[in-house]
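assembly run, all chains below
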Amino acid sequence: MKLNRRSFLSTAIAASVLPAPIVHASNHGRPIVVVVGGGAGGATVARYIANDSNGEISVILVEPTRKYYTCFFSNLYLGGFKEIDDIGHTYGNLAGNYGVNVVHDWAVGVDRTAKQVSLAGGSALTYDKLILSPGIDFLEDSVEGWSLSAQNRMPHAYKAGSQTQLLRAQLNSMPEGGVFALVAPPNPFRCPPGPYERISMVAHHLKENNPTAKIIVADPKEKFSKQSLFEQGWNRHYPGMVDRYGPDFGGDKVSVDPEAMTLTIDGETTKVDVCNVIPAQKAGHIAELAGVTDGNWAPVNAVDMSTKVDPDVYVLGDASKQGDMPKSAFSANSQAKVCANAVRGALTDSRVFPAKFSNTCWSLIETNDGVKVGATYEATDEKIAKVDGFISSTDETPDIRKATYEESEGWYAGISADMFG
Amino acid sequence: MKRSLSFLSCLVLSVVGLSAQIAAASGLGDSERGRELFVECSGCHAIGMGAEERVEIGPHLNLLFGRTAASLDNYRYSDSLTRAGANGLEWQADTLDAYIKNPYSIASGTRMSFKGVSDGQQRDDLIAYLRLFSDDPADFPEAAPTANPSFVALTPEILAVVGDAEYGEYLSAECKTCHQTSGESNGIPSIIWWPEGKFVSAMHAYKEKLRPNQVMQLVASRLSNDEIAALAAYFEIIEE
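ok done. output:
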């Protein structure tokens, strides 16, 4: 552990002048790792450090929600393939089986000099290493007319849970022949195939329950993930139902009116029944509060996910700016393992192995029609760099597509166990 | 082509000591249809969870592939099938295919009083279903049938690599995103407690794209011989 003069002084002052902060961990001299955010990055890194260090490291996980709903597979909930409880997980195993100190609170500040995280409840946590895995927040004003205060009328459903339930309720109560609108975000954003899998799942629901309904998509991007696979699938399964307006057709000039329930694309206003606005995104706000962001995201070193500005602060997953990996749960989970190995090596004398990363994203287009894209990555001096990859092809047999979907079910069970124990 | 594949597999058999052979018969059956067809067999044969413990008219069919005929301790076989086993009959896709087609063609005095299944597709489906309850290659969703070669020619150098289980544990984190350490399998097979040799040959088969799953091909493509050995060493002894 490095102690420079300034941090020593500020710690000393804090100890002598200010009232002592309430520190949650009774660490008995063990090094302390504080993890902020209990998703694919944070839950995984907490579990791996706690498990692999065999009690040598005290791990505190700060996560406001007691039940975590995964964004991955939340589209399948919208399509009726899953129920909400299927994608909900609790932290009991991390606490009970792995000894992770799970603190249900909001992290509201980071003092990197004092090496403390302050919580909304008023207490503070001291750390030797801080790992931020806060996911995303939304950029204000990225879609004209939309703000968080309108998210009950026009849900984003891009952080899973009540928002996802709201969107499904709105979808279910659409009038016959109604219009479902989706405003897609600009790059970079969480889960690149996510909006397009969502369109597929909404189309699946409508085909079965409201077959004359339409889907309008406003998209500021020319291209999107798995585009040929999705477009082929929409034509095959939902002919005539999906209208996508790319930037050529004004998809980048969009505004909404949540009160009037209208969507305006390039000056042309349409009354819609459901409007799913997925705004432009940035790192979860705590990363900005910690002072580790540059622009919207937190730049990190590929070798261990430590931030460029502070070797004792790490950022995982969607919030990080790491290079070539997509912002996905699989990526965050992969980065968490590299980070866990490095952090453990820095705090104890455990072996540190070379960084290796991988990602696979499965998407469901229609019942038993699953597709996937994947890649491997390595750490270079500049970034996490792609090594090799694959993508499903448009001429696969139904058997392969079904096997791919079944594989995605297996992955969901696997990564859930890997995160939550 | 067939000759060279047989040659490769023989090479592996001799070195790794795996008893497998290239079967001549079937294409990839549909295990779902096999499951339905198996209802007729289930009157006498147990399969799946707890099958080993159950006393039935016929022997249980877990881990059937690679099993020597008439080799279960807790089952009393006909003299005829016992003799066939002693003479080296082993259950593989081709021998099962022949046996299910006409049991008496394989063991004239078998106690399996069953007229046989004449439809080749139905036999393929049954075999695909049986395979789900066997060892590697078990329930890989995209895997080719057991009838296809699943082993690659491994050089003595590869086989001589001693795996670093601690490195394997680190590398295994990538596997564990999908493969559950509890042994649960659900669209993705369990890979815990595999014998090292089988693990190594399976990973090399993916690396050489003999096994078809894209994710596994990609994962295996960047693993060195040392890393495959490390993973094999770890997964053989992994604690649940």
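The two ends of chain A are 30 Å apart (CA to CA).

The mean pLDDT of chain A is 94.

not gonna interpret more than that til we talk
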